[in-house]
Amino acid sequence: MKRKIASIFLALILSTLLGASFIYTVRAPVSTLVIGTTDSVESAIDPALAYDFFGWAIIQSIGSGLVDIEPGSQAGPEDIIPALATDWTVSASGLNWTFNLRHGVLFDDGVTEFNATHVKYSFDRALNIASPDGPQINIGYDAIIDSVQVVSKYQVKFNLKIPFAPFLQLMACQASFIVNPQHAPFNKIVNFTAYNARKSTPMDLGPYKLTEWARVAGKDYRIVLDANPYYWNISGGYPRTQRIIYQFYADSTALRLAIEGGDIDIAFRHISPTDIVSLKQNPNVKVWEGTGAFIQYMIFQEEQIPGLVRLNDSRIRRAITAALNRTELCETVFLGQSVPLYSMIPIGMMGHTEAFKALGDANYTYTRSLLDELGYNETNKLQIELWYESSGHYPSSDDQAVLYKSQLEASGVISVTLKSADWPSYRLARNNGIMHVFVYGWYPDYFDPDDYAFLYWAGWLNHHYADYGVHYQHMVDAYDAARNTTDVATRTSLYAQIDQYAMEDCPVVPIYQSSAWAVSKPDVEGIILDISQAWRNWLIIPEFPTSLFAIFLVMTIITVFLARKVIGQKVAQAKAPLHNQR
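and the corresponding structure tokens:
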């Protein structure tokens, strides 16, 4: 009997070892995901005011629009997919868009059903508030949309002023998301309310709901998103993770330490280029790279700033532009993780040109020639202040600034004083018009050249080009003409005209275009970094790896235990009659 038991044990051990040759990984979902970032909410989590990457990322997680962009696509008109609307049609004129809405979608009270009146309310409210810092005014919703009409409970019609080519992309952007009228006053922005997440946002139709938003000294400290039980696509298995926790870090170094130390599951915005290179060699993390539509650019304040040279002469602006060296920036600061940009319209997008190449890079001969006309030389240098953001809102801002100073001063005729401010102070300085020369960045609201070309004269930059620009009106006319046609060839030609005028005036100067990056634990899945720049929390899932071998081993141990028990019982039963015979 002992030999029989030994044989059974041996067979089980051998089967376990043989099972090891069929190892693969199965995954068990974890309910919470922790994301680390150096970014923060700029103003509010209200689509009538929010106009920053991180604010929009939160809105996208807790809200929903009529349509969305297919994850991983090129974000063109053909890549628009249903969201709160199931389908839509457009008139032959391109001026009337009709959307059919989903039935049975509930707001967070679990009672109120979403319908066409909420769509109209959301757009009418944003245009009524008309925040000068908000997206509706700066994108120009009022120049595009004439009216929003409730056709029936589940059908809404947009009547446009122009046949706006990227209208569906505009509907997919977070500025077009639907608010809950019970939490969205018609004449007032919903701002942060301490200790009350529900009162801090008018959004509640998304895959998550905002359950915690903590700030310390006006800076984000912690944000928590929990799965929305009334989300319209919950039957599709979304969100994949029940809870998202955002932890905020002071700089990229702290963020790197957090992901390396296992304190967070994902590090996103911003990781330094040197850290990206290093983390790619770390087997304990996974580095994600995506298509980038993020750009940075240099702006010149054309109004007089006391004590500084006025920059309303395009020769000064062209001289500074010609002294920049984009290639050196991309190779030394960004270590090849960005590319030089010579148009405000990104590479790969319709309308992109290389117009600013005409001014050259490190073209010091041209710089000195232009400034010589204005009386500047080696003994009488042009004095400028160059401002940069210092709190991690943009990538490697301090390194960029140091290099720009070096490049400009290498001309021999420009002297640069660097100045910096954290992001809230930087925005305030922009609004107050006190920054002489400064660097800004842009993520697309919707993926179309219409959303980039206007940056040359964007009013919220407060650089006064509209007041002094020689070619300002020509540029606006070309831009408006491009908005009024859906013909690709015509639009492409018009955007080329805008770039040409911009190169001659240099109100704003494109510098580089960057890829998108994230770092995660090895077993995080579902991160998609596509051209839309959308951060889709509901697709991400942290997963605990469990090898089939481990499962097999556990099952074998259980089987052995049960086998021993059964054999023991058999042995006992066999001995029982003998005992009774005694």
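(Above: one complete record from the training split.) The longest helix spans residues 548-581.
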